[in-house]
Design goal:
The protein is α/β, with parallel strands linked by helices. Helix content is about 40%, strand content about 20%.
Length: about 425
């Protein structure tokens, strides 16, 4: 029987990898289909969903009846909470799960940092531009824009002063202020967060780093903006995304640091790449897949031979026609370059809805749990992240080479004992 318990490297097996290899030694998550990482990923594996009716109603053009929009909501945590408080509730649950999962103890806190991604303001900016600024006389437009920008800056400053200190206090994590780093943006921004964390680890600025994301597309203001911009699927719109919410964290540390504290190494992080597209979802420019292709090829510096091990991909296709088309263009470019394109793909929004800034961390949780439970059936996983904004990103997850079954014999990928 496979217990799914992660293992630590033996001396011989661990010494085959450089000490600055980035190890994943902890996971934490909360979603609409699970209160922790194990149940969330197991539910996704089983194809479970938990839809709820949301506050916005639309008229079905066929029946002329009012029909509520549907989404995936962590109602046990977030019902009655909005904005800052909602994110804090989600983040607290996911961070508690990470702490329990990783075995991180107080002596390690002094050398631990946290890099957190929260939603950016792109959706709000595009919505205000189309619903307000474009309708104002040109002379008044700039004055209103300055007022909106000032209000947005003030909110951001207040958020960065309060959010991480309050989140860490809830979990009794006294991390130094200098180690607390924020990022704001959509799904693909997460690769920049990962890259900065890896740099801090390899430069020995930190011994270990908690990296994660929190987002809610079912929160009132965000939900309204997404609906009015035509991004959501409705009875009258057969393509589009279903909103969701989630929080997820992963613990990264150098392999030598993980060995020193006797941590359980659950997977390895491979190359991380971030690129920028020429236009965004509403820029009017054609998205050709070139930026995503560049990010993916950067993850395979040795070319096709190295890419053959990535037999599974995790992608954030979400029902949006433009995003699917862009990913298709990227696949064509990969084929033309002689790089294999995995026929096996997992889609994060299929299970959790659109979760924006939490997407990258959730993808890591899905992939690592797939390694641990042996259903990934691939020695490495390519994670590709598209976005409504300009960023595109990709990174590799690698299974640990010393994963063993209970008999102490290394089991081939895909075998369940």
């Amino acid at each position: 029987m496979n217990t799914g318990a992660p293992s630590s490297p033996t001396r011989a097996q661990g010494s085959a990898l450089p000490g600055n290899t980035i190890a994943i030694t902890g996971l934490g998550m909360v979603s609409a289909i699970g209160s922790d990482v194990a149940s969330s990923c197991a539910a996704a594996r089983a194809g479970l969903t938990r839809w709820r009716e949301l506050d916005i109603q639309v008229t079905d053009e066929d029946t002329l009846e009012a029909v509520p929009l549907k989404g995936q909501e962590v109602s046990s945590l977030t019902l009655g909470f909005e904005g800052f408080a909602r994110w804090l509730r989600l983040g607290d649950a996911a961070l508690r799960d990470l702490m329990e999962h990783s075995g991180l103890e107080r002596p390690a806190f002094a050398q631990t940092g946290i890099h957190l991604q929260l939603p950016g303001t792109w959706l709000e900016e595009v919505h205000i531009q189309g619903s307000l600024l474009d309708r104002l006389p040109e002379g008044e437009r700039e004055r209103v824009r300055r007022g909106v920008d000032a209000e947005r800056t003030e909110k951001r400053e207040q958020l960065t002063r309060r959010f991480l200190p309050e989140l860490l206090a809830l979990n009794q994590l006294p991390l130094a202020p200098r180690t607390q780093v924020y990022a704001f943006g959509g799904a693909a921004t997460f690769t920049q967060v990962l890259a900065r964390a890896v740099e801090a680890l390899r430069s020995r600025t930190l011994e270990r780093c908690i990296v994660g994301g929190i987002d809610s597309w079912v929160d009132g203001e965000t939900l309204t903006q997404a609906y009015e911009m035509g991004l959501l699927r409705t009875p009258n719109r057969p393509v589009g995304r279903f909103p969701g919410e989630a929080a997820a964290f992963v613990l990264l540390e150098r392999l030598d640091s993980a060995r020193a504290r006797g941590a359980r190494v659950e997977a390895l992080l491979g190359p991380v790449a971030s690129t920028v597209e020429a236009g965004h979802r509403f820029s009017g420019r054609s998205l050709t897949g070139a930026a995503l292709f560049e990010a993916i090829t950067t993850c395979f510096p040795e070319g096709a031979r190295q890419a053959e091990g990535a037999e599974l991909s995790i992608v954030n296709l979400n029902g949006d026609e433009s995003r699917s088309r862009e990913y298709g263009y990227a696949l064509v470019r990969l084929q033309e370059a002689g790089l294999p394109t995995s026929s096996r793909r997992w889609y994060v929004p299929e299970h959790f809805g659109e979760i924006g800034a939490a997407t990258g961390a959730v993808a890591i949780c899905m992939g690592v749990r797939g390694f641990i439970r042996r259903y990934a059936r691939s020695p490495s996983i390519l994670v590709s992240l598209l976005d409504d904004e300009l960023h595109r990103g990709a990174f590799l997850l690698r299974d640990i080479p010393w994963r063993q079954d209970e008999a102490g014999v290394t089991a081939p990928h895909g075998r369940q004992s």
